[in-house]
Model the fold of this input.
Amino acid sequence: MPALRMVAAAWMLLGLAVPGIWAGQQPPVPPQATPASSIAEQEIERRLAEMVQYLTSEQLEGRGVGTKGLDLAAEYIGQQFAQAGLKTKLYQDAPFQKFVLSRGAKLGTENRLRLVGPPAKPGGRPQVLELRLGEDYTPMSLSGTGEFDLPLVFAGYSISAPEANYDDYADLNVRDKAVLVLRHEPQQANPQSPFAGLQYSEHAQFSRKVANARQRGAKAVLICSDWFDLEKATTEARKKWYELQGQLAQLQEEFKKKASPTAEERQAHQQQVQALQRQLAELQPKLQPEYDPLMPFETGPPPVQKDEIPVLYCRRAVVEPMVELALGKDLATIEAEIDKTLKPQSRPLEGWRLIGRVDIQRQSVEVKNVVGLIEAQGPLARQHIILGAHYDHLGYGGLGSLQPFRRVVHPGADDNASGVAVMVEAARLLAARKDKFKRSVLCIAFTAEERGLVGSRHYIQNPLWPLDQCIAMINLDMVGRLQNDRLTIMGVGTAKQFEPLLDRLAGPYGLVLRKVGAAAGPSDHTPFYLRRLPVLHFFTGIHGDYHRPTDTADKLNIAGMRRIAQLVADVVEALATAAEVPEYVASAGGMGLPLIGGGNRPFLGTVPDFGRQADGYAIAGVVPGSPAEKAGLQPGDLIVQFNDQPIKSLADIEAALRKHKPGEKVRLRARRGSELLEMEVTLAPRN
Ligand SMILES: [Zn+2]
Done:
């Protein structure tokens, strides 16, 4: 589970009640001995203890992404699944759903780019324009790598939109050529435009433009800013500039009225003036129409496909003279004509070539989900319950650790060796009972949860069995610290049958349930919940060792884990044998407790993406039926502005929300890939 303050803030952001367990951190107390009443139970406890010992051992290096220890853990869990009687020959005779996790990219040292054109005078030397990396141009994060020397063709916006009867590639041959392309789309100021009116249509997406060019045989893409966007940015900067000037004048005015200001007042005034002057200075360069910042390489999405063609972004001023020379009119005129006629103006830039090389060093690592199957027989055998738990943790610390500066193994006993061990034991109990089952059970140990639910999101996009056959997902994340028999279960409100079922089954194990209706939270059940599946998350609570090297196996309540494993097995068995499937309930509401610290915070309905480090508030998903979903926010979006306030983090948006009431309309700006979306959101009351 991602870092504590993030979790707390995330829960609050989702307008969810934070169960009392949050109230205070639980001091580690020795596990209560609810003695195993049978040999079988003692056996379960012995195996649970053995598993957490191994998973938290030094050799497994804190099960960090990119460590050998993580692979050892995967092998071990696969063996445990097989020994527990699960089918594991699911992916090329193994239980491993492998995929590559990009671990970022950086520019290599071999990047170069030039534009070469026909001689200015007959018999003269070709015109050569050497472009400066990071000043005139930059490769884009979704670019492929490679060398190129290609004739250049102007291809408008690289848009083919049959629904708008518009095609920049009509009668244009770009095979084995490079294309110069404008950002965004035509008619951006026209509310009636077939390109989503004043919003950006999907045609404006970089990945879409690149795919369009590639599909027509282009071998490189050079993108430059469009006039409309630059103009808009300048206008906004100017508006802001005047506002700030107004504020400054007013400030000076008011201060002048003070007869004898105190030293403190003088100093406060000075600071306010300087703050405004700083903002004005920052705005200064943006007032110029030619202000055309290059977008940073790092921020964009990775390439959509392995052998992507080179994709570069350059400032408009760099290509403007070439276009004018080759086409006899400047870009702004061309854009204006396209806006007016909605007729493309694509043409070869006779005699011009794009020559260069893109050098990007991508770091990636192979990771794997571990999957085991308890297969039922009969007509409903393809319907299934997913029982999951993440097996990765923080490795040697750093990102996500609450002691980030100590490079030391983080054993992650409770987070989440406990969940893995409980899952394996529940699976063993279930495998022994499968003859009664109508539906099957898929057990999944997810990888890279600490990197932002990466493993579960990958599974959702690449399910072993169709997700519409999945009737429920049960997630075990931090179930090792049962105290006073109190077990928290979240998502109880996501299906009508869950609460009575849990109440009926928990009794025999002496578990006192804290039931939370809402589901969305920073763990692997969320991607399933966002696909409108009923989910449950079992959780024994937060504690002082969370995400610290002190989260060790000796603090686990093994007997508690055994009781939870037995309850989980009973719940899954009930679902696998029930006549009816659980009835999904959309926005799970407030079975929670009053919000700690009170305050009436409106509901937005976004799920934070903890794995993504970016300048803004990155979201992993939106709650079905929430204001965020209605406004069109999508998983992967990066919120960068809330009304006039820039948003740099989860905390920023939480603070911004605090200033508003349910029912109020606010404007959000979000980055999707690299285009900027603007939307209006009507905030809702918390459930
Ligand atoms: Zn966790």
User: Anything to note?
Assistant: Residues 1-33, 588-599 have pLDDT under 50 and may be disordered. The pocket of zinc ion is lined by residues 1, 390, 415-416, 449, 477-478 (CB under 6 Å). The radius of gyration is 29 Å.
